[in-house]
Amino acid sequence: MPDPKPKGEKADGSAVPLTRADRARTVASVLRRQVMRGAFFGGVLPDERALIAEFGTSRNTVREALGLLRDEGLVERRRGVGTVVVGRAYEHPLGALSGLAEVLQRHGEVVNEVREARVIRPPLTVSRRLALPDGSKAVYLERLRRVDGVPLSLDCTYLIPEVGEPLLAHAAGTPRTLENHDVFDLIETATGTPLGSAEVSVHATVPDPATCAVLEMPEGCALLAVERLTFLADGRPADLEFLHLRGDRLTLHATLDRAAGHTEPAGSSLL
Amino acid sequence: MPDPKPKGEKADGSAVPLTRADRARTVASVLRRQVMRGAFFGGVLPDERALIAEFGTSRNTVREALGLLRDEGLVERRRGVGTVVVGRAYEHPLGALSGLAEVLQRHGEVVNEVREARVIRPPLTVSRRLALPDGSKAVYLERLRRVDGVPLSLDCTYLIPEVGEPLLAHAAGTPRTLENHDVFDLIETATGTPLGSAEVSVHATVPDPATCAVLEMPEGCALLAVERLTFLADGRPADLEFLHLRGDRLTLHATLDRAAGHTEPAGSSLL
Questions:
Q1: Co-location of B74 and B157 in the same domain
Q2: Which ranges carry the HTH gntR-type domain (chains A, B) (predicted)?
């Protein structure tokens, strides 16, 4: 149980002044979104004086906020230049059930490095999510997605045999198919069946050193761990994916509707 | 630039066996989702032998996978019991434009600890997102959301004056209004204007120690940093929020539609 009387509140229920760390977090939240949205022309943040004026806060708070973004690997200080954005950030429209490549190919050359592509016996919990009989086979596909050479996500995909096997056969006959295509395209091309909907869960986690190394991420950054269960248009599950997206390079974006939330059951109101 | 020939691939283009760290990540991905979905009856994970059978992998891989989940603060080993889930995880339906409390109140007593609630002069970038004239005032509301005493999210909200000022007036006349209500309820009640849609961006980040302390999170866990710009039904922006959701306690969940992704502009296809 927490303290009976929360810290931020006086006896009469009114709020008390926040600490500098609280103010720095608030400033960092706003700047972080600007960095991720590519809002800073030329990739250089406004100088300290401008940030102090913009946020109506102290120099120390601004410095602390910039320190938070540096610790997250989003910006760095460059002598004679100021605080600059490190690397490039991309927005992934979560709404469109598009593969990431469909989005990223506008930004650079997308290549999926194939790490594994074969028939396996999936864990029971995976076969159940895919509505496969216990003991059934599945196709496992693991790929590292790069844009202009920079790894953005590590995608681990379990496909039902009716989808995965034609997909492997198609890939065997067509060089670089797995490298150059989104999983959604692959499924629709290999099976001739259109996709219907997907259930997506998004979780934030700190990656282990091996995952950092594969994604070439600086340590101290976070991952978006996305589970995506995709259905064919006829309602059968097609594949279950575990996507590991670099938190310092990718933001998920969606537009939601209040009305839908009131009328549809939770989780199905995006349709 | 990466190596010209990716590590996971042989000269003939076929994949090579993955490392144990790769297999552990795959196992951990599946188990992580089960933990977050509350799939383990009584909060106890299957024992090592069962996991080895389920995942068709070695004891060392299973141990490494469980170690990853321990490092993330999701499970711990208890002598004589096994590996148990730490704390409670919640799914937040991202699709429904519902406040988190609307979802969480099914699970326990939701209290929003008010840390700040006052008229401020917002940063320029915030006023522009809210379509306010430069130099305009706004209302800033900062609350720590707890379920049954456990902090789940720190919510920093900038409201346009036409919404925020009636909201503060309403709260002043009605004790514990801010403590007991979602921001969406507050807005609709205070202004009598229904909400329309929201633009949501989701980012993963590692919190600084001060934020960990406020959220009572173990260090080494990640945050879901959500920016949400909500519009009134008439299309005016109502508020801009920066939500800091505990990554070890909350998962965002949504159902998406492939068809919409093809016909609607990116980011607006959830409607």
A1: no
A2: 21-88
